[in-house]
Design brief:
The protein is of the alpha/beta class and 275 residues long. It has eleven helices and ten strands. A five-stranded parallel beta sheet has the order 3-2-4-1-5. Strands 6-7-10-8-9 form a five-stranded mixed beta sheet, with helices on both faces. It binds S-adenosylmethionine. S-adenosylmethionine (SAM) binds next to helix 5, strand 7, strand 8 and strand 10.
């Protein structure tokens, strides 16, 4: 018999594909709590069923009503309550932030049980520098907003980690090639599942590969840090021309210098030639 859990909120990470990745502590906690707050009762119901656990489930996401959140907080103040998401670590591009914040403010004990998260699995597989990384969640879907988001991250001295979907991968790779030119990119797909793969290279190589082999499933997309820029892979003229379409030569040179780390004066001279 497991020792009874004290009251509080238990954040429980669950598998991102391979059910064997559930931890022993996650199992005892899911068994020992009074209820499980989850995004989708069907998805969590399948996991609990697989583990042979019968448990009360309460649907919760960050758009839930204040009443639902208050109800969960009242429950967690008196009894142990688990929070799970459909897969992986709750709060990481998943619901939970508002509940955890409110629980802490209310003085309710919060415990986080570590386990799978696609961002970490992708990063560790990618071969990209892992000493510093910036997790940026999902990029915006619209071209302009996505370009702006990438430009804002261009100077960050770290590997960038994004969550992505298969239908948007080609557009994202094209945007990376434009806004973060010359950077090595890695696509980690279907992690911990049967068709797991991690493929790296320049965006153009990956676009060519995935147009011949349309990707399926879930994706973590990573971009190496600016120091790792492959200058030979940068099409400087194309970048300058894209900027010159809406900016003066000096501004175009400054923007391309920021994105590539190339010398601004050299770029300015080339921009004047192209104009
Ligand atoms: N909280 C989850 C975590 O910790 O990994 C992430 C939830 S987020 C809503 C879902 C996204 O995570 C997917 O669109 C995909 O980008 C990524 N993802 C989840 N499982 C994955 C897997 N098995 N392989 C690759 N990416 C995955």
């Amino acid at each position: 018999m497991d020792a009874p859990l004290s009251p509080g909120l238990y954040i429980v990470a669950t598998p991102i594909g391979n059910l064997g990745d559930i931890t022993l502590r996650a199992i005892t906690t899911l068994r020992g709590v009074a209820a499980v707050a989850c995004e989708d009762t069907r998805v969590t119901g399948k996991l609990l069923n697989h583990l042979g656990i019968k448990q009360r489930m309460i649907r919760y996401d960050d758009h839930a009503s204040t009443e639902t959140r208050d109800y969960l907080l009242a429950l967690a103040a008196e009894q142990p309550l688990a929070l799970v998401s459909d897969a992986g670590t709750p709060l990481i591009s998943d619901p939970g932030y508002k509940l955890v914040r409110a629980a802490r403010e209310a003085g309710i004990a919060v415990t986080s049980l570590p386990g799978p998260s696609a961002a970490i699995v992708g990063l560790t597989l990618s071969g990209l520098p892992s000493d510093r990384f910036l997790f940026a969640g999902f990029l915006p879907a619209k071209d302009k907003a996505r370009g702006d988001a990438l430009a804002a991250l261009a100077a960050v001295p770290a590997t960038l980690v994004f969550y992505e979907t298969a239908p948007r991968l080609a557009d994202c790779l094209a945007a990376i090639s434009q806004h973060l030119p010359g950077r090595e990119v890695a696509v980690a797909r279907e992690l911990t599942k049967r068709f797991e793969e991690c493929r790296s290279g320049q965006p153009a190589e990956l676009i060519a590969h995935y147009s011949a082999h349309p990707p399926k499933g879930e994706i973590v997309l990573m971009v190496g840090p600016p120091g790792e820029v492959d200058q030979a892979a940068v099409d400087v003229d194309a970048l300058l021309q894209a900027e010159l379409a809406h900016a003066k030569a000096s501004q175009a040179a400054a923007a391309v210098a920021k994105a590539t780390g190339l010398d601004r004066k050299v770029l300015y001279a080339r921009a004047l030639e192209l104009k």
